[in-house]
Amino acid sequence: MSAALLLPAIPVALIALVLLSQSRTWATDRATDQASRSAALISSTVVAPALSDDDFTGGTPTPARISELDDALLPLIGDQIVRLRVWNADGTVVYSDLGDSIGERFAISHDLEEALAGDIHSGVSSLTKDENRAERDFGKLLEVYVPFGGEDQPIGAVEFYMGYEPIEAAIRADFRQVGLLVLIMIGLIYLALVKFAVSAVRDRRRADAKAIEASQDPLTGIANRRAFDEALTLGFADGEDPLVAVLILDIDDFKDINDTAGHATGDAVLRSLAERLTRLVREDTVVARLGGDEFGVVLNGASSHQVDGIAQRLIEGLNEPLDVPGSDVALRVSIGSAANSGNAAGPEALVDMADAALYVAKRSGKNRHVAFTRGMREPSPAVVHDSV
Q: Read out DSSP for 275-289?
């Protein structure tokens, strides 16, 4: 279940990082846009009425004119606007709250060029330009250029340097609100994904459990008759004349064990026998409980000689006492085998042949292996291998 909680967390965390980053960008853009609109409003309502076209075309303003402009515009300087500069179209400062720069001409920057083309431009100032030498003590500033005058072409621009601390406070406030909404949304998405993942894991486990239940013997834990039949059918599907054999194994006199020791002991014997039987064959060999005390083994790629050797090894191994609760039980087993050598019509026929051989093994004294021969269904001799 921990994987169901962890796996959704990875993509959700990545989405959260992306959204929070975008939220920060959005908050920054929003605060910058608000500051730019505020500067444009101040330009149109306060700065523009104080200026005339002559201020942009008449050369350096007189001290009297500068005094008039100071009276109108210096009250703007404060925490929000820390510097104000008015430019004409050739890059000359025609007014500034810093009087020493009035009349100076500078190379037209890209920001000023955009404003002279009619666009409002804003951005955090690097304060590296020549005209910024007096602003470098202010720290981080937002620089806003607002076009001024002209019906078709601006005749100048108003430049505002705005303190960035209030803007940054607005960014933080917006980011907190948006970030909280993002985290709530991400949390809901995560919970939905976890619910889906947990449901998927449970469904998978149920499906796996049903698949195991459908192919596993509940008493012994090994394959059941259905899995045995599927393995045998798969073996026959391997080529035109596949080399496949079947062993059918039965505990001799198992009824006596149940009658004398009880069914609980009988069940313990079956479990112990199944465990030992799986240890006596290769790991990829299918061993199944077919019902009662009867077991089946599917051997792929085994010759008749190899089948006989395997059967003898199983009898010897299973004759060793089984350790079951309360006592050791010595078993005797009979085995009938049949190998496909072109005489079997299919899986069911091969099992019938092995059953017929098992019947002969029981009739011939038990605790032995009998391999099926062609005339076995008739009263003719069988190939019998004693293990006594």
A: HHHHHHS-TTSEEEE
Paired strand residues for 386: 368
Domains of the chain with CATH codes: 2-169 (3.30.450.20), 225-386 (3.30.70.270)
Contact of 150 with 158, CB cutoff 8 Å: no
List, for residues 330-385, the tens digit of each pLDDT value. Answer: 899 999 999 987 656 789 999 999 999 999 999 999 999 999 998 786 444 444 45
**374 C-beta neighbours (distance < 10 Å), count:** 9
Phi, psi of 73 (to 5 degrees): -110, -25
Q: Tokens 């009880």 — which residue?
A: 262
User: Per the structure block, which two tokens stand in for 245?
Assistant: 């054999």
Hey, how many other C-beta atoms are within 10 angstroms of the C-beta on 326? 10
Average pLDDT over residues 313-323: 93
Q: Compute the distance between CA of residue 155 and CA of residue 146 in angstroms, rounded to an integer.
A: 11
Q: Which token pair is 40?
A: 């444009």
- The closest alpha carbon to 145, from 109, 112, 176, 102, belongs to 112
Residue type, 273: L
Read off the pLDDT of residues 138-195 as tens digits, 9 standing for 90 and up. Answer: 678 888 999 998 777 899 999 998 887 777 777 677 667 766 777 787 777 777 777 7
Q: What is the largest CA-CA distance in the chain?
A: 139
Question: How would residue 127 be classed by pLDDT, with cut points 50, 70 and 90?
Answer: low
Q: Are 76 and 83 spatial neighbours (Cβ–Cβ below 8 Å)?
A: no
Which helix (H) or strand (E) element contains residue 114?
helix 110-116
Q: Judging by DSSP bridges, how do beta strands 368-371 and 333-339 pair with one another? A: parallel
d(CA 102, CA 20): 44
pLDDT confidence of residue 388: 41
Q: Which helix (H) or strand (E) is 145 found in, with range?
A: strand 141-148
